[in-house]
Structure prediction request, 251 residues.
Amino acid sequence: MTYAQEFALVGAVVGLLAPAGMFAYTLVRGGPPDPRLLFAVMASGGMLFLAVAGWMIGRREDMLADRNAELRTLSEQLKLQTLTDSLTQVANRRALDAELGKEIARSARYKTPLSLVMVDLDHFKTINDQHGHPVGDQVLKFVAQALERHKRKGDFVARFGGEEFLVLLPHTGAEDAVRWAERLRAAMASLAVTSDVGPLAVTASFGVAQWQNGQLTPETLIAAADKALYGAKQAGRNCVFPAASAPTGLA
Prediction:
């Protein structure tokens, strides 16, 4: 039954109750009805109808409010899923692209520095080959958690793909970004990953690039960080390599 049909039925029932009651009363009492009694009966019938109608309208509004709240929650969950890497629970490439474009625009407008750090796990393929992909997944989760713990307020961590992560450092020049990456590199090298096959030593290589106003697009900034990362790999891994500079933190 629709709401319109429910209202119509309630109105018809209440509308019949008052005259039916007065008719029964005149039959039993005889003579014309008392005006005061007539008013009381009609007023009671009107109040009853309006009360029921108000309750039904309120119930409908409550149902709509609950449904809208459920839809908003579902929408937020879906949005979060589309922007989050399902394994590591950090931002994914789609979220990174949006954030990077926004931060570059902000840096260009306010003339503030912006750096990008690319992180790549050393010998990750060996971990997968020797211990299996489930253990490799545990290592990736560990690294993502380490990045989240060491990021500063305003920094942005994302999984770039495979065993690579990107960290966006707003208001940070290349030198400060290198120092931040070096602290993270040392922290990761000193810890052991808890896995199903026991503790695992994991190191990572870092490439650092700073955005230059008018010179680097989001794509070329990522490419510069990737090139610096390649330099870190060529320098022996487990080190930080700034773009167009020498590696630091060799182990």
About this structure: Helices lie at 3-29, 35-83, 93-110, 124-131, 133-150, 174-189, 218-234. The chain is about 60% helix and 15% strand. The mean pLDDT is 83.
